[in-house]
């Protein structure tokens, strides 16, 4: 019992809002262990805290535990199991540490106590910090913009310079990321964008392509893909003419021994362990910073002079084709060049073309002498089709492709892509580019025809998440062609999910789908079926949280039955379900705006798909089906696309 009393006196127990506010008024530094009711406070650090308290013997140092479940101010921490320690001085948050990292916790306590004593003794100003866990979502986006595929472009004034910073896997694995970020901000750097991601080997290889000739290249690739990194875009609040040298000065030399000897206060000296594991990365110059920005944040751009005057810079698309002779062996190298040139790959598909499709695409060249060679080349294997996006995409892609005649490209522009990737004894160039903006859109439609898919916002998500889901649907580039809010009758729900009639969960599923209104939508976009399924995430929310944390089901679903949204599993299933829900409608129908409310029963007999297994069957089966769609080696273009493409001589063009 004596031990328990000691423990209680060491850490004040805060279990309600009133106690929390009282704790914040305590003079000195208070270190709060935030915990969830179901798991309790972090017991592993209690002996360390007692040791620190005994060694320092300072009446201005206080420890507390706080139950997030019952304190309004800690609402954003609910549901998180990672140990979190908040440092408060004078009622203000002055430090945050996640994880039970004993050496770092001890060091932060000593440092923050020293700072707080200076404030109390000399009347200095506290440096308050903000923790993402306590900031509202809207404020969080404003303060530390997070780039994701569902967000709009991040635009900053052209007067600001910027650079890419990476907190590498070694520093992240040792729990140093938050500490480094705090030091970055303390040093006057402004974080314009921040994303945590684990690089694939291909991404790491592409990113460090300029180091490919170095002996450590393979080790570097393996290291950078070994765990999560934090990718940041930095500027300086005071608007430095060039932030790149300032950042490189702050991180110190790449060699750790040199950093410790010459720049002991630098980040690499403090956090690096050897040259490869040197904690942080910085762009070497402005050009490299620009390429790295395009690699990690393709929607990050500066506002041009015209934009600042109110006119927005136009981003256009162009079609690129990597022909079969080089599509397999050289694709990664070419894609790296594309990223370095500032393009975003908006759409990508590997396609096996038939002779008829080649004639259709190059209809203007069928009578030319070179056409048989072109036909043979284009049907000899899979073609990699890409829709590339950036400002001036058509013109820029044509410029880096170089002359259309292979011999001319080698002689006049040996650095151009067509010269670099020419095939020996092959007269046809290996890379295609659209000749104009109009032709680009026609060619993109040929390889990426618009699809329709059926989306359903289920009853569990209608009240709380409907508007957010609709906003994200439109923000992801889908057109809502038809929209209908309806209450399903039992007969309609049974027909909709009739494939599952013999399964044990069928009755529960039907009852759930009839319990309130749901929203039916027809979504239109290139590759709509796959993109909507990717946006939804796996059927099982637990699997979604583990593998696709930004997906709708990861964020809004509560279990396999109540999984928020539904989507068709294939284009054929989409057609069937759209016909079942909306009847016979024109596929080119205009968007309906807000749609209409319809609570009638549809008696039409149609075969429905087992797309997401009704939210109740094996999530593994759904996931496998989905991955088969996304990872298939080749696709055939079976639709009859309009005649497009190749207005220039394809032997010397495109």
TrEMBL record:
Q: Does the keyword Metal-binding apply?
A: yes
Q: Enumerate the Pfam families for this protein.
A: NDK (PF00334), Thioredoxin (PF00085)
Q: What InterPro entries does the record tag this protein with?
A: NDK-like_dom (IPR034907), NDK-like_dom_sf (IPR036850), Nucleoside_diP_kinase (IPR001564), Thioredoxin-like_sf (IPR036249), Thioredoxin_CS (IPR017937), Thioredoxin_domain (IPR013766), TXND_domain-containing (IPR051766)
Supply the source organism's classification.
Eukaryota, Metazoa, Chordata, Craniata, Vertebrata
Gene Ontology terms: biological process: CTP biosynthetic process; GTP biosynthetic process; UTP biosynthetic process
* CDD domains tied to this protein: NDPk_TX, TRX_NDPK
Q: Which UniProt keywords apply?
A: Cell cycle, Cytoplasm, Metal-binding, Nucleus
Provide the function of this protein. Answer: Major role in the synthesis of nucleoside triphosphates other than ATP.
Domain Thioredoxin: from-to ranges: 1-115
Q: Give the gene that encodes this protein.
A: nme9
Where in the cell does this protein reside?
Cell projection, Lamellipodium; Cell projection, Ruffle; Cytoplasm; Nucleus
Provide the residue positions that the database annotates as binding ATP: 458, 505, 533, 539, 553, 563
Protein name per the record: Nucleoside diphosphate kinase B
What Gene Ontology cellular-component terms does the record carry? cytoplasm; lamellipodium; nucleus; ruffle
Q: Which intervals carry biased composition (Polar residues)?
A: 615-627, 635-646
Chief localisation class: other
Native source organism of the sequence: Dicentrarchus labrax
